[in-house]
Every structure is written in structure tokens, then in C-alpha cells.
Amino acid sequence: MNCMNTSDWIGIYGAILSTLIAIAAVFRWTISWRKRETEKKKLGTELYLLNKIDINTKKKHPVVVIMLANLGSERISIKGIEYSGSKSGMPSKGSPGWYEEPEARYGIQKRLLPVVLESGQTKDLPILSIGIFSHNDDLKIWLNTFDDEKVFLDESDILKMKDEVLKC
Fold first, then answer.
1. Where are the chain's structural domains?
2. DSSP state, 143?
3. What does the pLDDT look like over 43-61, one tens digit per residue?
4. Cβ-proximal residues to 64 (8 Å cutoff; 6+ apart), any chain
5. pLDDT under 50: residue ranges of the chain
6. Which of 34, 72, 105, 109 could cysteine-pair with 39, CB 3.0–4.6 Å?
7. Is the pTM of this model over 0.85?
8. What is the CATH number of domain 42-167?
């Protein structure tokens, strides 16, 4: 007759207890991971027009600036900016690069990307030339993160900026 003794019951109790602890740990890790991923997506963006003036020639260089704000509690890393649209019905896609405009056109390379934003930090990226807005229809602009996610800029901001650029 197979009768379970005390050590068998202690073994069963230990197996059940360790299984419950493992399930609880996986559950807590999943919740923590989801919270971190949600916090990484709290990135505020805004576009505004900046007129840089060359001190030697007094020439005005309008540049579109992307203001980034990390509204979450996790670090956000941006590695690049891309855009797509259409020029006269032909698809157009590109990247403005990593350097500040209009200085980049003259060989002065002040690197702006990649950028890391800590919680609560903001950063202005004067990186977009006005030609991107004046020559493209159906324009979409997005930021690429190091987590291989795309953060799209708000279409209403892009349309407002396009109107401002066309007034220049």
C-alpha cells in the first residue's frame, strides 16, 4: 500500500509554493515591462519656425525646429528623423540628416542626433529645411527610436507649419 509520509507532503507543498512564487514574479515583471514601455511612448513634439540670421551677410535662413519633450519617467533615445510625401505626384522620402541647419549647408557640422532625453528633459532640433514643407504634399514626419519604434509628428502641426512656411 502506497501511503504518503510527511516528507512527501512537504515536497508537494514546496513544489506548489515555488510554482506560485514563479508565477507571481513573471506577473510582476510583465507589469513592470509594460509600464516602462508605456512611459517610453510619452514623447511630446511640436514644430515651430525659426529665422536664423547670418551675422556677416544679414541673410535670413528660415528653419523648422522640432521641439521634443520627454513626458514620461523612462529615458527616450532618438536616432533619426525621416519624412515621406509626394512631389508633383511622385513619391518622395528622405531624412534631413543629423546636423543643425542652415549651418550644415556651409560645412559647419553641429551634430544633433542621436539624442537621449531623460525624464522631463526637452530638446530643440533645428534640423528641417523649409523645402521639405513647401515641396511635399501629404507630408508625414516621424522620429526613429533605438527601440525601432516610429513616433509620428501630429498631422495638424505639420499642416500649420506648412502654412507658415508658404507665407515666408
1. 1-40, 42-167
2. E
3. 888 898 888 787 778 888 7
4. 47, 48, 49, 50, 126, 128, 129, 130, 132, 133, 161, 165
5. none
6. 72
7. no
8. 2.60.40
